[in-house]
Amino acid sequence: MNISIVGRQLELTEPIKSYIENAFETLGKYNLDIISGRCVVSADEKQGRKGFNAEFALNMAHKDTIVIRQKDKDLYAAVDLAIDRASKVLRREHDKKITVKGKDDGKEVRARIAEEPVEGVDEIIPMELELYKPLEIEEALEHLKNSEMQFYVFNDIDAKMRVIYKRADGKFGLY
Question: Per the database record, which ranges form the Sigma 54 modulation/S30EA ribosomal protein C-terminal domain (predicted)?
Fold first, then answer.
């Protein structure tokens, strides 16, 4: 990231420059491809009161430029407040980037599982469960007895997810 620090009506000392450079470095944790950052610090005196303005401009690849202006009596406080606001904006952008990537609802993972062979297992066939209709336990037991499945997953009348299964001794178990 290219960093530019400018002082208007203010002499920039080395501690101020290094403080602003460190502030820019904290913005790198969001991995958002920030091309350049510019900070303009200016002294402002209105009606006999001194104050400082800090303006940060962040140029990002494939995004609009983010500009944040902050005023305060203390220069370091103005820089800190501006960086906090920039962090919030960059965190939102980072979260958008993550949620857009994860929009496939697991279809890609299920497809990859179906294609990959698993050691010791001939073939895994993904199935969709029919959990939309609540069943009595007796109905689920009949369904399991009439099929060749080892277990059956269902929602009972109280909307609890239950599993009924065949035991090795020929009886049935219920979770």
Answer: 122-174
